[in-house]
Design the sequence.
């Protein structure tokens, strides 16, 4: 398993979500699945989305795929506005702009067609010429390492082979963006590695922008960027890069960041707040090169302890006019 290539410093934006909101209503009860989510994905990036069940990952993927419509905010993919497009535009968007890979290969495949016929079916619906359909199917099967299953039915393929054929179906019409929902969730370790390697090859070979929702560390720990979603908002990002030491040895350096949205909000990791018993409210102090976050406890100055250098106590801040 190799680390997905690092993203370039300057890259055109392929996916943009700004203050995205999705509210579901059932029996008079409102459930807010996305609460002002912000996300930017560059053209050609391979990004993993992670988070607990109910965090909003699948809701976000459904919106990006055109299967669902957001309640408010901005959602753009490849220049398409997902809030304002018509029903006809949405059909064309799903047929040409995005490809979707489900957790179950059967959701992308028809059992009575061969692998090659399944791949050609989206192109038939797109009225592509027969020769172009066959050439595209052959190209995808070769890139994904399963040229030998072209004429096989589903029952003659392993689970990993089926999922790679399903991946080829999602890519048949050359979409700019591939969205994958737990693509390795029902596979064993070996098959999972094969499928993820295939997704990486798609990203490398075609430059397809890829967004993967996953719980699988095999995937989330081997992409250059992992975005964490919590309570309907992006909460953290892990950026990975390769480093070479003085002896020529190669290692991967992972750095975790909290996400600061345009309103200045960020979510502190639960393990951090739990370790310091932070709850309800905290004190903030502006230092020369950082912002300090402190538990809501009596000031050291009031308890007779000296304040750290550069720190402004709570009462002094209030005296300065902050309400």
Sequence:
């Amino acid at each position: 398993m190799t680390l997905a290539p690092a993203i370039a410093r300057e890259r055109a934006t392929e996916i943009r979500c700004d203050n995205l909101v999705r509210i579901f209503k059932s029996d008079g009860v409102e459930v807010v699945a996305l609460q002002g989510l912000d996300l930017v994905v560059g053209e050609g990036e391979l990004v993993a989305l992670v988070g607990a069940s109910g965090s909003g990952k699948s809701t976000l993927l459904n919106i990006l795929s055109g299967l669902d419509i957001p309640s408010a905010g901005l959602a753009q993919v490849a220049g398409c506005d997902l809030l304002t497009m018509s029903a006809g535009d949405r059909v064309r968007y799903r047929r040409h702009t995005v490809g979707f890979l489900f957790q179950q290969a059967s959701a992308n495949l028809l059992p009575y067609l061969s692998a090659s016929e399944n791949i050609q079916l989206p192109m038939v619906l797109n009225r592509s010429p027969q020769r172009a359909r066959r050439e595209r199917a052959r190209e995808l099967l070769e890139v994904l390492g399963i040229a030998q299953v072209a004429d096989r039915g589903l029952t003659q393929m392993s689970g990993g082979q089926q999922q790679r054929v399903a991946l080829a179906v999602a890519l048949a019409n050359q979409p700019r963006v591939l969205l994958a929902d737990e693509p390795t969730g029902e596979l064993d370790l070996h098959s999972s590695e094969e499928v993820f390697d295939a997704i990486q090859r798609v990203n490398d070979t075609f430059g397809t922008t890829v967004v993967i929702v996953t719980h699988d560390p095999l995937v989330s720990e081997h992409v250059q960027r992992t975005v964490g979603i919590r309570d309907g908002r992006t909460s953290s990002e892990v950026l990975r890069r390769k480093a070479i030491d003085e002896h020529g040895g190669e290692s991967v350096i992972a750095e975790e960041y909290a996400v600061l949205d345009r309103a200045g909000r960020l979510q502190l990791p639960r393990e951090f707040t739990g370790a310091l018993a932070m709850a309800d409210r905290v004190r903030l102090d502006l230092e020369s090169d950082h912002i300090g976050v402190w538990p809501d406890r009596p000031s050291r100055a009031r308890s007779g302890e000296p304040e750290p250098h550069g720190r402004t106590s709570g009462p002094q801040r209030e005296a300065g006019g902050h309400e």
Notes: The first helix runs from residue 57 to 65.
